[in-house]
Design brief:
Shape: flat
Radius of gyration: 23 Å
Order of helices and strands: HHHHHHHHHHHHHHHHHHHHHH
Strand content: under 5%
């Protein structure tokens, strides 16, 4: 399960559990390094990475930045005799996941001024500036990229996306036209998705569908999961729950090649069904996500748990919490623990004696047991 932004220790969404369990190029799980970082065991992190750094320098640098230790990553970068752009970008790229760390990108670049830059470095710097100071602060990179290379599609897209996020669609469209007409750069999926994502939050379902049509028929691009998630969010926002479920079912059935539901998909669909009071359907979709190790975010799980309990499905509510705790024991911490109380479980994880089960509750399904 992936998350675009990591929050403070103990407050990450459980949807980060799947990727946290996966290994990077390093022969050590990134989850282990995060645990050490949260515990302040920096010497143990150094001891873990020291023997791996000679053979995995890029992965080690990236890991340090990923767990929130950019100062250590930068210092380690300084020990490399002939650092490359790949080394530099490995330190910088993970910082974009947290706004407070993104602001360090310019200073790290300044500290390693002799390392060559490339188009990826330009995009990282642009995203950093956009996150911390707004899109206007990154426009100079289109005229004078730090790499010295012509502005790329990725650089334009980073700034266009930022203008959309600042709710300045007219500025985004002006830059889009400049990219296409003045620079002859054809937009890709990421560029179209910046438009689609903006409209999913601020436009109509029909506007989102039209952008997806243009993307497919006029640009010759195949909509991806980001596109479909945005469409479902637009549908859910306009209370078109049946249509939301229909799109989800098509993805679940594999009707769109190489497009499978992710954490954001399940969060959207479960949230839409909960909002419509369709608790049994929401529970089914939730368990379908758990089976794929894709869990909805904490807020949505809480709504589901409280909704099931309020609908007389106390046992189903408790089953959700107990199942999550068993499947993701290392991630079930902090605010996630509050779900136990919400579901009617005591601190030992057992049911409280005064909790009654609803008569209409269904038995555990195969998906629920996954």
């Amino acid at each position: 399960m992936a998350a675009a932004t990591f929050s403070a220790a103990g407050r990450r969404l459980l949807s980060t559990a799947a990727t946290a369990a996966e290994k990077t190029e390093l022969p050590v799980p990134i989850a282990r390094l995060r645990q050490l970082a949260r515990a302040g065991r920096l010497d143990d992190i150094d001891a873990t990475l020291a023997p791996l750094f000679p053979s995995h320098p890029v992965a080690a640098l990236s890991a340090l930045s990923s767990v929130g230790l950019p100062d250590r990553a930068s210092a380690l970068l300084g020990t490399i005799t002939s650092p490359t752009t790949a080394h530099l970008n490995a330190v910088l790229s993970p910082l974009l996941r947290r706004r407070r760390l993104a602001g360090l990108v310019p200073s790290i670049l300044a500290a390693h001024a002799s390392i060559p830059r490339d188009a990826v470095t330009d995009s990282i710097l642009a995203k950093s500036l956009c996150l911390t100071s707004g899109a206007d602060s990154a426009l100079h990179l289109l005229r004078e990229p730090s790499s010295g290379a012509p502005p790329t599609l990725q650089l334009f897209t980073a700034i266009i996306d930022s203008f959309y996020k600042q709710r300045l669609p007219h500025r985004a469209e002006e830059l889009w036209r400049a990219m296409v007409q003045d620079h002859g750069i054809a937009p890709d999926n990421a560029a179209y998705n910046a438009r689609i994502t903006y409209k999913s939050a601020n436009g109509t379902v029909e506007e989102v569908k039209e952008l997806i049509r243009v993307m497919r028929e006029e640009a010759g691009l195949r909509p991806d999961l980001v596109s479909y998630n945005a469409l479902m969010r637009a549908m859910a926002r306009h209370n078109r729950v049946d249509e939301t479920v229909e799109v989800y079912r098509s993805l679940e059935a594999g009707e769109e090649a190489d497009v499978a539901p992710d954490c954001a998909t399940y969060t959207c669909v479960v949230g839409a069904l909960c909002g419509a009071g369709r608790w049994s359907e929401a529970e089914d979709v939730f368990y379908a996500g758990v089976k794929r190790r894709k869990v909805t975010d904490l807020g949505t799980v809480r709504v589901l748990v409280l909704g099931l309990k309020g609908a007389g499905k106390g046992r189903a509510a408790r089953r959700v919490v107990v199942g999550l705790r068993k499947k993701f024991p290392e991630q079930f911490d902090g605010p996630w623990r509050d779900l136990e109380e919400a579901a009617g479980l005591n601190s030992s994880g057992k049911e409280e004696e005064d909790v009654e089960d609803g008569a209409d509750e269904k038995p555990v399904t195969g998906a629920a047991a996954a």
